[in-house]
C-alpha cells in the first residue's frame, strides 16, 4: 500500500506564499517516493493568505481598495466576501493594510506605524453591505493596539487638550480620553469575529511590545516606550468601555489590534484555528493520512506559541500521526518543538548562502528537502518491514 502524505505548511514570508510552498513540497515528495499519495492542505493562520483561503473555500469574491498603509501612505489593498448562503460575510486580513511586508525596512519603527488602513477596509466592507466581518490577525507591522483602526471608524482618541492623537504606538501615551460618541453606528449591527493568537496578551513580560516589537524594528528603548504607551491606552479604554484589555486572551494579537477589536469595535476574539480549520476541512484530511509534512520560514522556540507547524502537529497527534517539519531556518529553542508533536525537523539550506540567494532559491530548496526527507523515511520503512519479517533468534 502506498504511503499517504498530507502536506500542510505555512507560507514563507517574503519568499513563497503557502500555495507555492505546498506545491514545492508535494513535488519533492513525489520525486522521492513516486508511489506516495499526496494530500494537500495549504494552511493559513490569520496572516497573509487568510482572505484568499476562505474566499476560495467558499467560492466567494475578492474586492480591491486603496487604503492608508502602515507608514501613512496609500497602498493597494483588498478584502473579500464569502460565497454561499447565510449573512453577507466580509473577510479581512490585517496584513493587507497594516502588514510588515508593507513597511520598508528603512521605516520599520512600530512607535510610528498605524493600523488606520484596517479600519478603512472595515468601513469599505460596511459600505458594501457586510452583515458579518471575519478578521484575520497576523503578520502585522504595527504596535498601536488597533488605535488607528478605531480612529478610521470614528473613535476619538484625544489628548489633554481634546485634540486627536497622531499615528503610531508611541502616541498612545498621549491619550487622555476615549470618545465613542462618533463611532460608526453600523458597528452596532454587524457581528465582528477575529481570528487571533490566543496566547498573545497586550501587556507584561509576554506582552506584545516585548515579545514582537523587536521583530518589527523596535529598539530596546522603544520597546519600553511602547509598553508604557499601551499601558496608558489600556487604562483609558477601561475607563471608557469597562473592558479590561491588558491581559485579555488574544488582545495582544497583531500589535494589540485584538484589543481594539474587542473593546472599541465590540467584536469577539477567537483562537484563530477555531475560525479557520472548518473552512480548510483539515481534520477530514488527517483521517486519510499516514504521515504529515508541515513547514514554515523559521522554526524556533516561538513556533509552539500558536504557529502553524505546532497546530498542525497538535491535531495530527490526536490521530496518532508522525509529523515532519521543514524550515527555511532553524533557530534558538527549536528543540522545544519535540514537546509539541513535531517528531523530526530539518532546515532546507544545505550549504552557506546569502539571505537573498536562499529566498530566491526557496522553491528548489524545498523540493530537495522534501525529497530527502521522504527518501530517509522510505529507508526506515524498508528496515521496519525487514525486521518484522525476520524470525526471532532463539535465546536457548
Tell me which CATH architecture of the largest domain applies here. Alpha-Beta Complex
Please outline the major beta sheet. 6 strands, mixed
Low-confidence stretches: none
Strand tally: 13
State the distance separating the first and last CA atoms. Answer: 37 Å
Q: What fraction strand?
A: 15-25%
Keywords:
396 residues; alpha/beta; Rossmann fold; Glycerate kinase, domain 2; 2 domains; six-stranded mixed β-sheet; five-stranded parallel β-sheet; 13 strands; 18% strand; elongated
Task: Walk me through the structure.
- The chain folds into two domains: 4-43 and 290-389, Glycerate kinase, domain 1 (Rossmann fold), CATH 3.40.50.10350; 50-274, Glycerate kinase, domain 2, CATH 3.90.1510.
- It is of the alpha/beta class and 396 residues long.
- A six-stranded mixed sheet has the order 3-4-5-6-9-10, with helices on both faces. The protein has a five-stranded parallel sheet with strand order 2-1-11-12-13, with helices on both faces. A two-stranded antiparallel sheet has the order 7-8.
- The model has no long low-confidence stretch (mean pLDDT 94).
- The radius of gyration is 23 Å and the shape is elongated.
- Helices cover 37% and strands 18% of the residues.
- The protein has helices spanning 18-32, 50-58, 95-98, 116-127, 147-152, 208-212, 220-241, 253-264, 272-280, 282-288, 308-317, 355-360, 362-389, and strands at 4-7, 37-40, 61-68, 74-81, 89-93, 132-136, 156-158, 177-179, 191-196, 268-271, 291-299, 323-330, 344-347.
- α1 crosses α13 (362-389).
Amino acid at each position: 500500500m502506498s504511503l499517504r502524505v498530507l502536506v500542510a505548511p505555512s507560507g514563507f514570508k517574503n519568499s513563497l506564499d503557502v500555495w507555492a510552498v505546498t506545491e514545492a513540497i508535494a513535488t519533492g515528495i513525489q520525486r522521492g517516493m513516486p508511489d506516495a499519495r499526496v494530500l494537500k492542505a495549504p494552511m493559513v493562520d490569520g496572516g497573509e493568505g487568510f482572505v484568499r483561503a476562505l474566499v476560495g473555500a467558499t467560492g466567494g469574491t475578492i474586492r480591491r481598495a486603496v487604503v492608508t498603509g502602515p507608514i501613512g501612505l496609500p497602498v493597494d489593498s483588498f478584502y473579500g466576501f464569502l460565497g454561499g448562503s447565510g449573512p453577507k460575510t466580509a473577510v479581512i486580513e490585517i496584513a493587507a493594510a497594516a502588514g510588515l511586508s508593507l513597511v520598508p525596512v528603512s521605516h520599520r519603527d512600530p512607535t510610528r506605524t498605524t493600523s488606520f488602513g484596517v479600519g478603512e477596509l472595515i468601513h469599505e466592507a460596511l459600505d458594501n453591505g457586510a452583515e458579518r466581518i471575519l478578521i484575520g490577525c497576523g503578520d502585522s507591522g504595527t504596535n498601536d493596539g488597533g488605535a488607528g483602526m478605531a480612529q478610521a471608524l470614528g473613535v476619538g482618541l484625544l489628548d489633554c487638550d481634546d485634540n486627536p492623537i497622531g499615528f503610531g504606538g508611541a502616541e498612545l501615551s498621549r491619550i487622555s480620553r476615549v470618545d465613542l460618541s462618533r463611532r460608526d453606528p453600523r458597528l452596532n449591527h454587524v457581528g465582528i469575529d477575529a481570528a487571533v493568537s490566543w496566547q498573545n496578551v497586550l501587556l507584561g513580560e509576554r506582552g506584545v511590545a516585548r515579545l514582537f516589537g523587536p521583530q518589527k524594528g523596535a529598539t530596546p528603548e522603544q520597546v519600553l516606550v511602547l509598553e508604557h504607551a499601551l499601558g496608558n491606552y489600556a487604562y483609558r479604554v477601561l475607563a471608557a468601555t469597562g473592558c479590561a484589555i491588558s491581559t485579555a486572551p488574544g488582545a495582544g494579537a497583531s500589535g494589540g489590534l485584538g484589543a481594539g477589536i474587542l473593546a472599541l469595535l465590540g467584536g469577539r476574539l477567537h483562537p484563530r484555528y477555531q475560525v479557520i480549520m472548518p473552512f480548510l476541512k483539515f481534520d477530514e484530511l488527517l483521517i486519510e493520512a499516514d504521515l504529515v509534512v508541515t513547514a514554515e520560514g523559521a522554526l524556533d522556540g516561538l513556533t509552539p506559541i500558536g504557529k502553524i507547524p505546532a497546530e498542525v502537529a497538535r491535531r495530527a497527534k490526536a490521530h496518532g500521526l508522525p509529523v515532519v517539519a521543514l524550515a527555511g531556518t532553524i533557530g534558538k529553542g527549536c528543540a522545544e518543538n519535540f514537546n509539541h508533536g513535531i517528531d523530526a525537523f530539518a532546515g532546507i539550506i544545505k550549504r552557506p548562502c546569502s539571505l537573498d540567494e536562499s529566498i530566491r532559491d526557496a522553491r528548489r530548496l524545498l523540493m530537495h528537502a522534501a525529497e530527502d526527507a521522504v527518501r530517509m523515511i522510505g529507508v526506515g520503512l524498508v528496515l521496519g518491514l525487514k525486521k518484522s519479517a525476520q524470525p526471532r533468534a532463539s535465546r536457548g
